[in-house]
Fold this sequence. Notes:
Strand order of the largest sheet: 3-9-8
Number of helices: 0
Oligomer: single chain
Largest sheet: 3 strands, antiparallel
CATH topology: Beta-clip-like
Number of strands: 12
Structural class: mainly beta
Order of helices and strands: EEEEEEEEEEEE
Number of domains: 1
CATH class: Mainly Beta
Bound molecules: S-adenosylmethionine, zinc ion
Amino acid sequence: MARLPGLQVIRSPVQGYGVIATRRWKAGSVITNVDGVLWRAGEKRDDRYSLILDEGVFFDMVDQTRWVNHSCEPNVVVEAGVTRQGNGWAQLQALRTIEPGEELFYDYALPEALKERCHCRARTCRGWIVEKGKRGQATFPIRPR
Ligand SMILES: C[S@@+](CC[C@H](N)C(=O)[O-])C[C@H]1O[C@@H](n2cnc3c(N)ncnc32)[C@H](O)[C@@H]1O
Ligand SMILES: [Zn+2]
């Protein structure tokens, strides 16, 4: 697997592997497009590394981005959706300036049924990796492009 420029997989102080920046990313910049595979509920897959695009629609991240951890105070946002041709897509964008060496985090906003304990250590940590108040809804809007 080719290494994505500006990113490095490390052992994370939060959990398991994580991803750090090896260069500075400005607020609003596209850090990377995500390589991944679309699949649907009922197909037997490991969903631990998948974005939830919609109810029963998942995007299994198959490059270094699969190891980006969750934080309740994220520095990254994921834009994701399904193209008119039915292909999944996702992109990581910087929410603020990210300096070299900083770990990347986005808010997984998991539905209640999939929630896990959170160890992000943010001041405003919710204690759980879970969506705020929108029980059972999609993590990301389906956006054609
Ligand atoms: C997409 S993987 C992220 C990479 C993961 N750290 C690994 O080494 O495989 C998602 C899993 O990482 C763990 N994880 C990510 N962020 C976490 C956090 N803030 N607190 C606790 N566990 C976390 C959870 O077990 C979650 O199911
Ligand atoms: Zn947290």
